[in-house]
Amino acid sequence: MITMTLPAEIRYVRLASLTAAKVAEIFSASFTAADNADGFCHAFELSVSEAFTNAVRYAVSSDQENMVTINFKGDRNRLTVSVSDSNPPFDPEFPSPDINSYPESGFGLLLIRRLMDTVTYTREDGRNLISMTKQPDNQRFGNL
Amino acid sequence: MITMTLPAEIRYVRLASLTAAKVAEIFSASFTAADNADGFCHAFELSVSEAFTNAVRYAVSSDQENMVTINFKGDRNRLTVSVSDSNPPFDPEFPSPDINSYPESGFGLLLIRRLMDTVTYTREDGRNLISMTKQPDNQRFGNL
Amino acid sequence: MIIIEKICHNITVVALQGTLDSCSSSQLHYYSSPSVTEVPLVIDLSNLDFLDSSGLGALVEIARKKREKGSDVKLACMNDKVRKVFEITQAYRLFDIYDDVEAAAVNAGNKKNSL
Amino acid sequence: MIIIEKICHNITVVALQGTLDSCSSSQLHYYSSPSVTEVPLVIDLSNLDFLDSSGLGALVEIARKKREKGSDVKLACMNDKVRKVFEITQAYRLFDIYDDVEAAAVNAGNKKNSL
Ligand SMILES: Nc1ncnc2c1ncn2[C@@H]1O[C@H](COP(=O)(O)OP(=O)(O)O)[C@@H](O)[C@H]1O
Ligand SMILES: Nc1ncnc2c1ncn2[C@@H]1O[C@H](COP(=O)(O)OP(=O)(O)O)[C@@H](O)[C@H]1O
User: Fold this and answer.
1) Nearest CA-CA partner of C45 in C108, C2, C88, C94
2) What does DSSP say about strands D41-51 and D73-76: parallel, antiparallel, or unpaired?
3) Rounded to 5 degrees, what are φ and ψ at B106?
4) Which CATH class is domain D2-108?
5) For residue A131, which of A88, A53, A70 has the smallest C-alpha distance?
6) Which of residues 65-94 of A touch B (CB under 8 A)?
7) Integer Cα distance of A78 and A58 in angstroms
8) Is the CB of C23 less than 8 angstroms away from the CB of A110?
9) Rounded to the nearest whole angstrom, what is the distance from the C-alpha of residue A103 to the centroid of ligand 1?
10) Rounded to an integer, what distance in angstroms lies between the CA atom of residue B26 and that of residue B37?
11) Which of A5, A7, A26 sits opposite B11 (nearest CB)?
12) Which residues of chain D have pLDDT under 70?
């Protein structure tokens, strides 16, 4: 179990996404069957970039510094990353907009849902927790 | 304040050192006077590589998984990283060996002392804590 | 992200290097500002290592503003990671995408190809 | 770390790519094993991004074992980050260090230069 806690500031987004890519790389190195390691790592890199961005973008200013927690857990053949923040609750099934209307946002959760095998959302102790799981050898949407 | 907690396993050493380099890069980006950003980032990358390696190498096996905590704190014009582990106490002034004897180890703490401006060691609650501080514009030993 | 501007076939080519995400996407705002919306543009993605949906949003904004003025932006040389974002969001429909900068520049003065 | 072997002027040149630290240093053990200690070697560091003291230890071990057998290892093309480790530890004293692989290979058969 690897845990990282960061202030909800946008300048840390690349630190978060690079960390996710590196953890996924280390995890997938233990699977000889992982013939799609690049896609697996990219799925984590991109999903964490989206989730961390949202955690920062929808933060409500408070007296205390808002902190975002990123948690990685390898479970046999699956890697799970969860991102938690103290923002208001949100709908993880948020529908993405029609691309033909030239939308400048609204694709973060869609990307996460498409890149990961399983995405769960829970609200606990006043915090959002989005939890994202993927198997290295699952090529469904992860292949590059 | 950024915190990362990792299992004491050597496969995570590069994750630790890359994280340190990236945090130092983000921190030094806020200093226009930082004319030696590369040296500053390398000092953190290398010092954390050494400290994390030691935390893993000198771990005593226990029932519980050994965890290493890495903590970053920016304080105005200085960045501090601390690495803590549950190993037996050690002497942070450990003298480095004579290079002419072809030593294969013993240079980790020397590198840390030379790369950083300030290094402190404390023992608390059964844990070692090595705390390393550097200013971006201090070129004493940090320049590349 | 590092932005390098060059000229190819009289067209401004903007080469993006590094990461285009929610932290760096504002660096592209200039290219959707009123003073340059009428000018055709090529964006060279060959050295872009990483793109997320915020970065994509900045590219979509440039396309929309240019098309409103009868101009266009063409994209060149996306790697597999970048292409993935265009596929999942279907943003590939909004852009003319070329395999090399040369071809993109030659076609930069044209309106977007209809599907 | 990726290790690529090539031959230059009949000398084995080992090019290291990426990171040589406590996780990857064991990948160099082969080059200090008895079967190859008598063979001169050049290590090309031009694509080595990062070295720490554990990685340095593996290089020192190769040098010691080779010299015990009258052979040597030469280093080529270290970047500033790698050089820093050699400076602080004074390990530069133990090695002949060249700016290019060619020069290192030409001198690989010679014993270490005395200071
Ligand atoms: N961490 C979060 N905290 C609060 N609200 C969120 C969070 N993540 C997503 N949301 C909500 O879900 C919506 C959809 O998110 P997303 O698909 O990433 O698109 P975008 O953020 O670009 O609008 C957001 O507009 C926001 O209202
Ligand atoms: N985190 C640690 N836990 C326990 N002992 C340590 C730790 N760090 C350093 N030491 C002790 O200090 C000595 C010197 O460390 P160092 O200079 O890094 O050299 P090396 O680890 O290569 O021997 C080690 O040999 C070890 O005995």
Assistant:
1) C2
2) parallel
3) 100, 10
4) alpha beta
5) A70
6) none
7) 29
8) no
9) 14
10) 10
11) A26
12) 114-115
Pairwise CB contact (< 8 Å): C84 & A144:
yes
The whole-number pLDDT of residue B30 equals 83
Q: Do A3 and B1 touch (CB under 8 A)?
A: no
Domain-by-domain residue ranges, chain C?
2-108
User: Which 3 state secondary structure label does DSSP give B47?
Assistant: helix
- HSE-CB of B3 using CA atoms within 13 angstroms: 11
The Cα–Cα gap between D83 and B139 comes to 16
Tens-digit pLDDT profile for residues A74-115: 988 899 999 999 999 999 999 999 999 999 999 999 999 999
Q: What are the residue boundaries of the structural domains of chain A, listed by start?
A: 2-134
Q: C50: closest CA among A8, A20, A138?
A: A20
Q: Test D56 with B49 for CB contact under 8 angstroms.
A: no
Cross-strand partners of A134: A79
Q: Rounded CA gap, A118 and A122, in Å?
A: 13
With contact defined as 3+ CB pairs under 8 Å, the chains touching A are: B, C
Against a cut of 0.90, is the pTM above it?
yes
CB B128 within 8 A of CB B84: yes
* CA distance from start to end of chain C: 32
Which atom of ligand 2 is nearest the CA belonging to B88? 4
Tokens of B33: 């006077």
Ligand 1 atom index nearest CA of A108: 18
Give the pLDDT band (50/70/90) at residue A142: very low
Write down the ipTM of this complex.
0.94
- Contact, B57 vs B66, CB < 8 A? no
CATH T-level fold of A2-134: Heat Shock Protein 90 (3.30.565)
| pLDDT over threshold 80, residue C8 | yes
Q: How far apart (Å, rounded) are the C-alpha atoms in residues A70 and A3?
A: 6
Q: Give tens-digit pLDDT for B104-125.
A: 999 999 999 999 999 999 999 9
DSSP H or E stretch at residue B26: helix B13-28
Label the pairing between strands A118-124 and A127-134: antiparallel
CA of B90 to the centre of ligand 2 (A): 7
What is the signed CA dihedral for D30, D32, D34, D40, rounded to 10 degrees? Answer: 110
What spacing in Å lies between the alpha carbon of B46 and ligand 2's midpoint? 15
Query: Which ligand lies nearest the alpha carbon of C52?
Result: 1
pLDDT greater than 90 at residue A137:
no
Q: Is B18 on the interface with A (CB under 8 A)?
A: yes
Atom 10 of ligand 1 has which residue's CA nearest to it? Answer: A90
